[in-house]
Amino acid sequence: MAVDIVGQDRLVTLATEIVTAYVTRNQVQAAELPGLLRSVHSGLLRLSSGSGEPTEEPRTLTATEIRRSIRPEGLISFEDGKAYKTLRRHLTKRGLTPEAYRAKWGLPVDYPMTASAYSAQRSQLALDRGLGRPRSLASETSDDQSGGVPLSDTERAAELPEQADAPDEIDESITRVPFEDDGAAH
User: Fold this and answer.
1) Among 28, 120, 139, 183, which is most exposed with the fewest C-beta within 10 angstroms?
2) What is the spatial distance between Cα 114 and Cα 70, in angstroms, rounded to a whole number?
3) CB-based contact 16:37 (threshold 8 Å)
């Protein structure tokens, strides 16, 4: 698709505006201006003709780079290079799912989304609160003063309140009267 003369003039104007905006914020030698203007114009020309370069694909990571990104105290994000305890919220802010992030950067399926030290800390916190144990054991170990050491059967029996034998309890048994159904729907 060829660019006509009006389109050429528009591209020159756009290139000039882009270079002017760039030069107002950056120092550029006078000798570099024609080359800068030429490269911006040729880039605009490629984009307008449809033969622009494809968008840059993220480079594939080496095994060493992947290993170095996994640290006990935090995971290094390949998106911005910062360390995070968990990547999930960071990726959500950038519009990625963990699966999309792994696919984008060529990471293995088992690449962690949470730092190991953070996972261990949360796991210990849950265990201290009695999570992950049967309810009977969890309530007994959290209520005792033994510092989290499970009680023996005799210690547990000693802590249970005595069952009061109440001789004046009324022994009423519930009796059921059979229900007679005549088979008619109500």
Assistant:
1) 183
2) 9
3) yes
Mean pLDDT of the chain: 79
Token pair in block for residue 31: 């000798």
Backbone torsions φ then ψ of 70, nearest 5 degrees: -100, 110
Specify whether the CB–CB gap between 101 and 91 falls below 8 A.
Answer: yes
| CA distances for 42 relative to 12, 30, 132, angstroms | 10, 20, 64
pLDDT digits (tens, 9 = 90+) for 51-93: 555 555 566 788 999 999 999 999 999 999 999 999 999 999 9
The domain spans of the chain are 5-49, 57-145
With CA atoms as reference, report the closest residue to 12 among 34, 41, 39.
Answer: 41
In angstroms, the CA 69 to CA 78 distance is 8
Global pTM? 0.44
Q: What is the token pair recorded at 2?
A: 């060829």
Rounded to 5 degrees, φ, ψ at 52 are -60, 155
What topology is assigned to 57-145 in CATH? Arc Repressor Mutant, subunit A (1.10.10)
